[in-house]
Amino acid sequence: MTKLFEVPLYPYKRSPDQDAERPVRHPVVVVGAGPVGLAMAIDLALKDIPVVVLDDNDKVSFGSRAICFSKRSLEIFDRLGCGDEMVGKGVVWNAGKVFFGDRKVYEFNLLPEEGHRRPAFINLQQYYCELYLVERLRSLQAEGRPVEIRGGNKVANLHPEDDFTIVTIETVEGAYNIEADWLIACDGAGSPTRRMLELDFVGRVFEDNFLIADVVMKAEFPTERWFWFDPPFNKGQSALLHKQPDGVWRIDLQLGWEIDKEREMKPENVIPRLEQMLGEDVDFDLEWVSIYTFQCCRMEKFRHDRVIFAGDSAHQVSPFGARGANSGFQDIDNLGWKLKLVLDGKAPDTLLDTYVYEREMAADENILQSSRSTDFITPKSEMSRIFRDAVLDLSEHYEFARPLVNSGRLSVPCIYDGSPLNGPDAKGLPARTRPGSPAVDAPVGNAWLLDKLGGDFLLLGLGTSVHGKSELHGVHLKEISLPAGAIGAELRQRYLGEAEQAVYLIRPDQHVVARWAELDWDEVSRALARVIGKGE
After folding, report:
1. Are 527 and 423 in contact (CB under 8 A)?
2. Residue 486, number of CB atoms within 10 A of its CB
3. What is the DSSP string of 84-102?
4. What residues have CB less than 8 Å from 214, skipping those under 6 apart?
5. Where are the beta strands (DSSP E) in 338-487?
6. pTM (2 decimals)?
7. Minimal CA–CA distance to 183: which of 322, 305, 21?
8. pLDDT band at 535 (very low <50, low <70, confident <90, very high)
9. Could you say which DSSP state residue 178 is in?
10. What is the predicted pLDDT for the residue at 464?
11. What is the overall mean pLDDT for the chain?
């Protein structure tokens, strides 16, 4: 049976660029057609920015790889136009259980409150994620949007100039050059782009190995995240179980540091481990097996003149907490609108330095949380293990101990506290929607707030009108006014608290810029000018 990851989705096709007399200049070139690179290209195409995606492969990834896609990623997919496909295929989950040995110590719900369109997470094999992104890209091409994907095009060399980059590309028909005003590297953890520019990561390597097995089986386990500390089937180590679509289950088993990787990956050694976990009477087939080590690290700077790094090419974390791909989607969400303003001449390229500031802040937060998770899961001293086991014992009966249990603090979007783009903040409004925070979804009549926000600068009036201007500083400003009678309980609780009215200025990536108790166009103008580099 032919698998999805065996079918070329963007096979090599000769480009007119290969026959041009001199290298053709492109506004944006994206290197890498993984999930982050594809999402970047879609975002730019929706903004009518011409973009070319280059990848030496011609099909989606082999194996499920990233599987946990967070609520914020789903909201970004909604803006890109493919959220329904992801959620429709994915396994939806909000809850999980934590086990110590052979007993459950507690369970949790990541989204206990009502009034959200999307769940806390879905599980979806990375190849499906890439498929839906490619299909979305193709639909944009059919609409006439300026986006192109070139499979079988391997970036072999880069030569940065003052205001563009020369890109040398190898194909089966020989090499050719193009030029990129801006090059965005989304080419993964082993980033050839990073190596070509002689750049490196700074961070910490963890001395441990984990076995990933994607298993096809019929099982009655619920659609929850199950994590074991020191289970009887993997004594002294840890284990993780997740359900995916098509009857596929992800199993992670900690193996320790000094192992023979090739030996451990052989079916005759993998299958007995899985039988110990699942029971010998459970029939299953192996779909994909891999062993991974990991590091928590990042580049010192995500921007190097006209080359910008996003996703795993810029930062890496351990898999505990599902922070890898999800943070990559938040990277492109942050970058696309800023690059649009720069290319349109509406903002100086120093605006892109705020991408560096905000997403390096997010990377540091993810690395901190991921490192703490890894240290808790894999204690490296006897005293650390004693502390961890005591916390797990206490968590079974005492709620105060449960926040101390760290089986992987699951991905949440970064709040850009202290960002140079943040403006004034009115007193008395809820902290969760303060400047720098991502807008929180809520029902608005029969629709959803985040769908109404879209991908523009937006002025939101709650209990007051904000109509009067559709453009400021040459930038389109969308306006939404909701009278008091149209504000439901969830929207009021998340944006107003005890206040009767408020005005919010929201960025195209749906992060809050500023908020006021009442409308003052001079204040709005100053806050927007600050964002686009035309004010203080």
Report:
1. yes
2. 12
3. HHHHHHSEEE-EEEEEETT
4. 63, 64, 125, 244, 248, 249, 250, 251, 286, 287, 288, 289
5. 443-444, 447-448, 457-462, 471-472, 475-482
6. 0.95
7. 305
8. low
9. E
10. 96
11. 94
Token pair belonging to 414 = 């970064």
Distance CA 66, CA 376 (A): 22
Query: What's 454's DSSP letter?
Result: T
- pLDDT attached to residue 1: 53
Q: Are 426 and 502 in contact (CB under 8 A)?
A: yes
**C-alpha span between 225 and 243 (Å, rounded):** 8
Is pLDDT at 158 greater than 60 in this prediction? yes
Q: Residue 27 and residue 25: Cα distance in Å, rounded?
A: 7
Distance CA 165, CA 150 (A): 18
pLDDT of residue 536: 52
Residue 178 burial (CB count, 10 A): 24
Q: What are phi and psi of 368, to 5 degrees?
A: -60, -50
pLDDT (tens digit per residue) in 371-390:
888 888 888 889 999 999 99
- pLDDT tens figures, 183-220: 999 999 899 999 999 999 988 877 788 899 999 998 88
Residue 400, number of CB atoms within 10 A of its CB: 8
6, 58, 175, 167 alpha-carbon torsion, rounded to 10°: -140
Alpha-helical regions (H) of 118-187: 126-142
Q: Tell me how far apart the alpha carbons of residues 457 and 506 are, in angstroms, rounded to a whole number.
A: 6
- Sequence length of the chain is 536
Q: Which domains does the chain have, with CATH numbers?
A: 4-64+73-80+115-199+298-365 (3.50.50.60), 431-531 (3.40.30.120)
| Cα 241 to Cα 67, 139, 213, distances in angstroms | 12, 35, 10
pLDDT tens digits for 342-359? 999 999 999 999 999 999
Q: Give the span between the Cα atoms of 148 and 140, in whole angstroms.
A: 10
Name the helix (H) or strand (E) containing 490.
helix 489-495
Assign 3-class secondary structure to 498-510.
CCCCEEEEECCCC
Percentage, residues of the chain above pLDDT 90: 82
Percent of residues, the chain, with pLDDT higher than 70:
99
Cβ atoms of 445 and 452 closer than 8 Å: no
The number of angstroms, rounded, from the C-alpha of 275 to the middle of its chain's C-alpha atoms is 33
- CA atoms of 443 and 456, how far apart (whole Å): 20
Q: Is the separation of the CB atoms in 94 and 109 below 8 Å?
A: yes
CA distance 216 to 120: 24
Tokens (6 digits) for 409: 């603090």
Number of Cβ within 10 Å of residue 350's Cβ equals: 10
Burial of 233 (0-12, 13-18, 19+ CB in 10 A): middle
As a whole number of angstroms, the distance between CA 536 and CA 522 comes to 13
User: How confident is the model over 464-480, as pLDDT tens digits?
Assistant: 999 888 899 999 999 99
Between the alpha carbon of residue 471 and those of residues 35, 55, 372, 475, the distances in Å are: 34, 39, 45, 5
